[in-house]
Write a structure and sequence with these properties.
This protein has two helices and five strands, in the order ββαβββα. It is α+β, with helices and mostly antiparallel strands. It has one domain. A five-stranded mixed sheet has the order 2-1-4-5-3, covered by helices on one side. A hairpin with a 2-residue loop joins β4 and β5. α1 runs antiparallel to α2.
Amino acid sequence: MKDEGKTMQITVERTGGFTGIPVTKIIDSKTLPQQEAARLHKMMTEADFFKLPTTISSSPQPDRFQYRITVEQEAKQHSVTVDETVVPANLKPLLNWLMAQPAQPATH
């Protein structure tokens, strides 16, 4: 994989849901164990993330989550906003992995 050695920073923001409490997680591949970083790069490649459209939406539904995933890798940056009901199959493993990561403390 040509991008495997490149570090990336991923921000995932989840909004909506029953409580409406937003969740933001920031993952920096250079802070991950080597095996997890390789797994992350594999999921990014399988999702073909940088070729996904910027918005993947369905008709509005109450109490559903919306995710915004922003990836910065060297000079590239791409954001995808997706409704939970229409997450493409190739993006699901990446989204599930990102949401399973511990939340980062806010740095203001």
